[in-house]
Amino acid sequence: MPAAPPPSRRTPAHPAPWRAALYRVIFEHDTRAGKAFDVALIAAIALSITAVCLESVPHINQQYGPALVAVEWAFTILFAIEYVLRLVAVRRPLHYALSFFGVVDLLAVVPTFAALFVPGAQELLVIRALRVLRVFRVLKMGEYLAEAGLLTAALSRARRKITVFVATVLTLVLIVGAMMHLIEGPANGFTSIPISVYWAIVTLTTVGYGDIAPKTPLGQLLASAVMITGYGIIAVPTGIVTAELVRGGATTPKDARKCPTCDADDHDVDASHCKYCGAPL
Amino acid sequence: MPAAPPPSRRTPAHPAPWRAALYRVIFEHDTRAGKAFDVALIAAIALSITAVCLESVPHINQQYGPALVAVEWAFTILFAIEYVLRLVAVRRPLHYALSFFGVVDLLAVVPTFAALFVPGAQELLVIRALRVLRVFRVLKMGEYLAEAGLLTAALSRARRKITVFVATVLTLVLIVGAMMHLIEGPANGFTSIPISVYWAIVTLTTVGYGDIAPKTPLGQLLASAVMITGYGIIAVPTGIVTAELVRGGATTPKDARKCPTCDADDHDVDASHCKYCGAPL
Amino acid sequence: MPAAPPPSRRTPAHPAPWRAALYRVIFEHDTRAGKAFDVALIAAIALSITAVCLESVPHINQQYGPALVAVEWAFTILFAIEYVLRLVAVRRPLHYALSFFGVVDLLAVVPTFAALFVPGAQELLVIRALRVLRVFRVLKMGEYLAEAGLLTAALSRARRKITVFVATVLTLVLIVGAMMHLIEGPANGFTSIPISVYWAIVTLTTVGYGDIAPKTPLGQLLASAVMITGYGIIAVPTGIVTAELVRGGATTPKDARKCPTCDADDHDVDASHCKYCGAPL
Amino acid sequence: MPAAPPPSRRTPAHPAPWRAALYRVIFEHDTRAGKAFDVALIAAIALSITAVCLESVPHINQQYGPALVAVEWAFTILFAIEYVLRLVAVRRPLHYALSFFGVVDLLAVVPTFAALFVPGAQELLVIRALRVLRVFRVLKMGEYLAEAGLLTAALSRARRKITVFVATVLTLVLIVGAMMHLIEGPANGFTSIPISVYWAIVTLTTVGYGDIAPKTPLGQLLASAVMITGYGIIAVPTGIVTAELVRGGATTPKDARKCPTCDADDHDVDASHCKYCGAPL
C-alpha cells in the first residue's frame, strides 16, 4: 500500500501555515490532534459500514430504513468533505488522488450518489472497510507495516512459483470439468462445461458445497482422484510461502545500503565491502 | 495458562500445618496423596461432563433425567467444596480466585445454580472441560508445559503477522459479501449483507456447508475466485507459524556456553561436559 | 511396523532344512522364490479385497453373489494355509503371532468364519489391505522403510506438541458445541450436546457437510468464529510437523554411539567426548 | 515437460532454408515472427476453448449452436495445418510426435473428428488448454521454467515419502469405509463399500459434500475421528514438500567459496568480491 504522498521535497515554496496544520492533522499520526482525527475516522468508518450492513437486512430495513438512509448520507457528506480537505492539504493533489488510499477514499463516497441512479449501488460502500487499513498506521504503525512488508515481500518473491501453480490448477480444473460433463452429464447436475469447471474448483479447493455431486461410479472415482489431488497439492503453495518466510528470516540481514562506487544493492548487513566491486560501503 | 499461585515467599508467617498439608494434596502433584487427588479430580470432571452431555440427549433425558440432575448436583456440591478448600489452602485467596484456573474452577460450579433461574444454563457446565487442562500437570507436567510454552511463544511472536492477516481476511469477506448480495440477491439465499459475509467466510475457509450457494454464472465466477484465494492464502498463516516454529526450534536445543578449555560452542543445553575435549562446562 | 521375527540367535539348534527353505520363501524377499511369493501374495490380497467390495454392491451381489462368496472362501482358505505355514516356518511362533503383521494375518482370515454367526462380519476382510503394506518390503524395501521411518520419527518427536494441540481442540469443540446447543436449540438441528459437538468438529476441521448448519444470526456469528479459528489453527499441526521434518534434516547428525563410561546416548556425530561425563567416546 | 526436439546435432545435412525459417517461426520465441506466432497461437487456443465451453451451455447452444460448431471446425482445421507444419519443420518428426507437446498437439485436433462418430467427444477439445503451457516459453520462459523446475525437483525428492503417505491414506479409507458400511448401512446412504470408501475420501480430504453423512451416534463418532485425522495429517504432505523446498532453497543462494585473503565464507553465489575485505573471490 503506497503511502499518501509526503510534501514533495522539490517544491521550494512553503505551504500556507493553515495548509501545513491541516496536513498534520489529517495525514500525520504523531500529534495529539492527528491521533484524535484518526480515532474519530476509524469510528466513523465502522459506524457507516454497520449502517450499510443493517440496511441490507430486510426486517431491519422495513423498520429503520429512512433513518439508516439518513445516516448513510450524513457519513457520505462527512467523508466527501474529508476527501476535499485531503485534496487541499497535500501539495500534489493529483498524486494523492491516484494513490491507493486516494482511490479508496473516493470510492468510499461515490456509491451513495450512484445509488440515486442504480438501486443497490450503495452496498458498495463497504469498500470503506479498506479505509480501516489506515488503522495500522495509527497503532504502532511502523511495526505492523514492517510485518505486512515481510509478508508482502515473501509473497512477491514467491510470485513466479505461484503463477506456475495457479496456471497448472486452472488447466487441471478445465480438463477435469470437461471430463465430468461427459461422464455425469446434465441429468446429474453437470449441465455444462462451465458449471462442471465450477464443481471442479469447489472440489479441488476442498470447499465441497454439495449442491452438485457426482452420482455415477466413474464420476465418483474421478471425483475421489480430484479430492486427493486437492488435499495433497495444497502442500505446494503452503510449502512455497513457508520456504520464503523461513528464508525471509535468514535473509532479513539484507539491508538497503547501495554501493557508492557501482550502485549495487542487496548487501548483507554485516558486509563492509561491496560484494560486486569490492569498494568499501 | 498462569499457574495457581505458590505460597508467596515474602509472607514470613508459616501456615498452619493442616493448611500446608491441604495445599500439598490439592495443588501439588509429586506426593502420593497429591497424585491420587489429581486422578480422582480428572475422573470426576470427565464423569460430570458426560452427565451434562447425556442430559441434553432428549431420549436419554426422558428416561434418566432425574438421576442425571442428581448426579449434576452431586458433582456441583463436590466441586464447590473443592473450590472452598482451594481458597482456604492458598495464602493469597484473591490471587488464586483471579487466576485462570481460579476463574475456571468457579465457572465449573456456578451454572448449576444459574439453571435454577435460567433454564438450560447448566449446559455451560462443560466449561469444566477446561479444568482437565490441569492434567498436563499430572502427567510429566514439565515437559508438556514446555511444549505448550514453545507453541505459545511461536504464536506470540507471530502475533502481529496474524493480526495483519486476519484484518485483511475480514476486509476481504466484507467486500466479497456485499458484492455477492448485489450479484445473487435475496432470491438465491443471499438475503442480506451479514448473511452474504457469513457465506463468504464459509467459502473462504473451505468449510462449504452448501446451505447457501451461488446460482448465477457471475456469482459462481466470483465464488470460484474466493475459493481459490481461500485455498491459496491458507499458506500464509501456515507459513507464519511454521517459520516461527522452525526458528524457535533451531535456537532452543543449543545454548551459548563456550567450553572454558577449548573455546568450542554449540553445546546442547543438557550438556555438562564439552563434547569435543571432555572438560566440564 | 515391527518386522516379522528373524530366527532367534539364541536358539542353538539348527532348523530342519525344509523349515529354513519355507522361511526363505515366505519371509524373505531377496531370493527368486521369495519375490514370486510376495508378488502372488499381493495379487491375491488385491483380488480378495475387490471381491469383498463387489459383494457389498447390491446389484452386483444379486447377480454374482454365490460366485463372490465362493471366491471369498477360496481366498480365506488360502490365507489360512499361509498363516499356518508362517507359524510353522518361524522359530518362535508366538512372537510372530503377536507381532503387528501376525495379528493382521490372523484378522485377514477370521471375519469369513465370523460371518457364519454375525452377518456382515465378512466386510471386515478389508483389513487385508493392511497386509499390502508388506509391499514396501518387496519394492526397494529399505529406502521406503527409511522414508517411513523419517516420517514416523518426526511425528514421534512432535508427539507431545500434538497431544497438547488435540487436547486444546477437543476442549474447544466441547465448549463451542454446548454453546451452539444453547443458542440454536433442537429446532435448528442442534438436538443435543453430542450432536452439537459433532457439528463443531465438522466445522472446525473445515469438512462442512451442511447436514446441520446454524440458522440464527448469533449462531452464524459463533460459527464464523469457529471457521476462522479452524482455518487458522490448521497452521499449528502443519507447523509442528514441518518444523520437525526440517529439523530432521538438521538433526540427522545425532548418532547411535553410547558413552562407554556412563552409557548415555544422544551424542552429535562430531562429538569426540561424552557431553555428560566427559569420557572419550 | 520435454521440449520439442531441437534439430539434431548429429544430422550432418543442412535443412532446406524454407524449413529452417518455418522452424524458427513455429518453434522459436526470440525472433519477431516467432513471438507473433506464439501470441496468435495462444489467442487461438483461448478462443477455441471458449467456443467449446459455450457450446456445452444448453441455452447458448440452442441459439448459436451452428455458429459455434463452425468455429470449432475452423480452429480444428487451423490446428491440424499447424500440426502438419510442425511435423514438416522438425528434422525428426517421430521424436516430436511422441514428445509431450507433440501428443497434446495431436489430441487438440482429434476430438472434433471423433465427435462425428461419438457424440460429445468434442468436449475433450479442452485438452487444448495444455497447449497454453507453452505460454511459459513466451513470457520470460527461462525464469518460469526454472521455478517450475525447482517445484518439480522438490516434489521429485519427496516422491517416496508421498508414496508412503498416499498408500497409508488409501488403506485407511478402505478400512474406514468398510466399517462405516457395517455401522450405518444402506438405510443411511452407505449402500456399498465402494460408496462408503468414496464417503471416507470426501470426509478425510475435508471436502464434505454432505450428500452422504452419518446419522447414527457410532457413525458420527467414527466420522469425527476421521475428520480430525484428515485435519491433522494434511500436515504430513505439507511438511514433506515444505521441508524439501526449504532445503532446496537454503543451499541455492550461498556457496562454499572462501575469501583467499581473509578466509571468510558465506558469500552469495553472485558475489565477485569478498564482502568483508573487498578482495576479488
Write a brief caption for the model.
4 copies of one chain form a homotetramer. With 281 residues, chain A is an all-alpha fold. Helices cover 64% and strands 1% of the residues of chain A.
Structural account:
The structure is a homotetramer of 281-residue chains. The first copy, chain A, has 281 residues and is mainly α. The first copy, chain A, has helices spanning 17-27, 32-55, 58-89, 93-98, 100-107, 110-114, 135-138, 141-157, 159-184, 193-204, 217-233, 235-251; strands at residues 254-255, 267-268. Chain A has a two-stranded antiparallel sheet with strand order 1-2. In chain A, helix 2 (32-55) runs antiparallel to helix 3, helix 9 crosses helix 10 (193-204) and helix 9 packs antiparallel against helix 11. The radius of gyration of chain A is 26 Å and the shape is flat. The first copy, chain A, starts with 16 loop residues before the first helix and ends in a 13-residue tail after the last strand. The interface between A and D is large, with 64 and 70 residues.
